[in-house]
Amino acid sequence: MSRYILGRLLQAIPLFFLITLIAFGLLHLAPGDPATLLYGTEMTPDQRAQIRAAWGLDEPLPVQYVKWLGNLLRGDMGRSFVDGRPALLVIAERIPATLQLTLSGLLFALVLGLSVGIVAALKPHSALGYASTFFSTFFYSLPNFWLALLLILFFSVWLKVLPSAGIESLRGETGLADRLAHLAMPAFVVSLREMGRLIRFTRASLLDVMSQDYIRTALGKGLTMRVVTLRHALRNALIPVVTLLGLSLPQLLSGAIVVETIFAWPGIGRLVVDSAFQRNYTVLMGEIVMVSLVVIAGNLLADVAYAVIDPRIRYGK
Amino acid sequence: MAVATKTLANPIQSIVRHSADPSARFWYRFLQNRQAVLGGCVLTLIVLMALAAPLIAPGDPSRIVLGERENPPSLDHLFGTDRLGRDVFGRIVWGARVSLGISLLAVSLGSMIGILLGAVAGYASGMTDALITRAIDVMLALPTFFLLVTIQSLFPPSVMNVIVIIGITSWMAIARIVRGQFLTMKEREFVEAARCLGVRPARIVFRHILPNVSSQIIVFFTLGIADAVLVESALSFLGLGVPPYQASWGNMLNDGQIGILSGTWWVAFFPGLMILLTALSINFLGDGLQESLFK
Q1: Are the beta carbons of A258 and B149 separated by less than 8 Å?
Q2: Do A295 and B240 count as a contact with CB atoms less than 8 A apart?
Q3: Is residue B16 over pLDDT 80?
Q4: CB A295 to CB B268 under 8 A?
Q5: Confidence band of A37 (pLDDT split at 50, 70, 90)
Q6: Using a CB-CB distance cutoff of 8 angstroms, which residues of chain A are in contact with residue B153?
Q7: What is the mean pLDDT of residues B65-87?
Q8: Alpha carbon of B263 to those of A142, A156, B267: distances in Å?
Q9: Model confidence at A317, in pLDDT bands (50, 70, 90)?
Q10: Where is average pLDDT lowest: A194-208, A279-293, B42-56, B57-71?
Q11: How many Å apart are CA A198 and CA A205, to the nearest integer?
């Protein structure tokens, strides 16, 4: 088991370095050098040379990369171009809000997606069984920014029951109820695409398991359908779903960019859009590295969970 | 009675269903799938609308009429007007060209990259395969939308940029499928035969194996367009996609965003509905194709 985890870890390390290379390359391959991007073209050659020296831009690219990487590994991502604070701090203080949003979205998607998927597989000819295929594709095709605007229109503008922006009220009551009211719409929007995937995947996986020989054997030896589904089928059908969860992280975070921007949610998704408009490249680079790290860790976790649940993975090569 | 009709109806059906002609079997299965047929029809209508834009909505879609700002839907303006007095319906019709065109070209670019890399990886195996597979892993681990937003902030906004960046961030799925297919296909007898006859590797890859993988590619190409439509409109919605002066569905939603809070819902509602309809019909069509081609 520990060998398996170690192997996975070792595979993740080159992945991380490649990603830092991409993040670094992006900024330095862009037209114009960072000095120009930052301070515009109206500089005297003297000023330009000064800035380039100050930021270390006059050194050869490989040297710059190694220096940047060295700093990165010590937790120094450089300073935000906007307010001069450490980029790592700027990003880190936004993470809890994004986690709150994406994890509640994922939880909601998981509860509804799994139960609908399971019922749809067990009763394929029921109304829910037929509707589930339609709705999983529907959720998957729904533009999240449009849904967000419609929800705001309906619940905030017309019914006036839910706040349209922010993570909590700026004044007045700021308890749990207030936070939940702010969370409801953004988390719902973030969850839908995942829910669509989960419904479809769970249904297909369970249908696949139900046609296996050991299910027929279990039924043949006289076990009730209920026991066979709960003890035999479900446990095996849900194994691949674990991998899907690991892969859903980049999707959730990508969704968070749009949703956080619309709902003025103070997370890293909104930060990346703000930074893009402010051309705040240290923060942008830091975010790509940071988010990739989270994604790699998520995949690693899913792999490990998969191996814990399914011994075939651990012992097979 | 029921038995009688069954025996009458079935011979033709069963002839088609078990026909030796694969395309007859495909059409039989495809036409049985109501969602797929509906998706195909709606998509055809949307494409026709984009092609016939000058006939359906004559005149400049960006014409500003200050006297007719934020008019609700009426017979004059089917979908109302926006805050610059531009006709929302006209902009939707013309925007279809931008949104569909970008998605089509972006997915074509992505598919070419994916097919090329997937074919090389699957056929060559060894070191080349390991490298390409690693590249696929890296791209899948990168949260693509973060990357897209970052790249878009580096370059001045243009339609070309949007096509290229969506293309270079969406080739992984096809590359994976093509690689997997090539891995199994290259062991088949007809490939071995070609190799024995001294056919060059490039010709084996593109003329002998690739046509056998085409149905998989068609399915992923179709599904990819639905994703590209969503990504393009999300980028434009954020103001990081198509330049603002051009009518694309995402840009229109960006324009209509402010109106949501003041109650002029139609400016954002209709473009979003079009994005949903397009993505939904393509996904239904793609799923239908997949089921009829591979089951």
Answers
A1: no
A2: no
A3: no
A4: no
A5: low
A6: 275-277, 279, 284
A7: 76
A8: 22, 11, 10
A9: very low
A10: B57-71
A11: 10
Confirm or reject contact between A272 and chain B (CB < 8 A).
yes
Q: Please judge whether A19 and B276 are an interchain contact, meaning their C-beta atoms are less than 8 angstroms apart.
A: no
The verdict on a CB contact (< 8 Å) between B150 and A288 is yes
B contacts of A258 (beta carbons < 8 Å): 234, 237-238
3-state secondary structure chain B: CHHHHHHHHHHHHHHHHCCCCHHHHHHHHHHHCHHHHHHHHHHHHHHHHHHCHHHHCCCCCCCCCHHHCCCCCCCCCCCCECCCCCEHHHHHHHHHHHHHHHHHHHHHHHHHHHHHHHHHHHHHCHHHHHHHHHHHHHHHHCCHHHHHHHHHHHCCCCHHHHHHHHHHCCCHHHHHHHHHHHHHHCCCHHHHHHHHCCCCHHHHHHHHHHHHHHHHHHHHHHHHHHHHHHHHHHHHHHCCCCCCCCCCHHHHHHHHHHHHHHCCCHHHHHHHHHHHHHHHHHHHHHHHHHHHHHC
Residues facing A79 on adjacent strands: A86
Task: Tell me whether 0.90 is exceeded by the ipTM.
Answer: no
The identity of residue A163, as a single letter, is P
SS3 A18: helix
Which residue type occupies B240? L
Specify the pLDDT at position B281: 96
Mean pLDDT of A128-156: 91
* Rounded-to-integer distance, Cα B140 and Cα A302, Å: 15
The partner residue sitting opposite B35, judged by closest CB among A18, A134, A273, is A134
B240 to chain A: which residues are within 8 Å by CB?
Answer: 273, 276
pLDDT for residue B5: 45
User: What number of other Cβ atoms are within 10 A of residue B182's Cβ?
Assistant: 26
Residues 6 or more apart whose Cβ sits within 8 Å of residue A95: A267, A268
Chain B hits for A27, Cβ within 8 Å: 154
Residue A192 pLDDT level (bands cut at 50, 70, 90): very high
Question: Does A261 contact B at CB distance below 8 Å?
Answer: yes
Contact A88, A286 (CB under 8 A): yes
Sign, Cα dihedral of A176, A178, A182, A184 = positive
Residues of chain B in contact with residue A140, where contact means CB-CB under 8 angstroms, are: 283
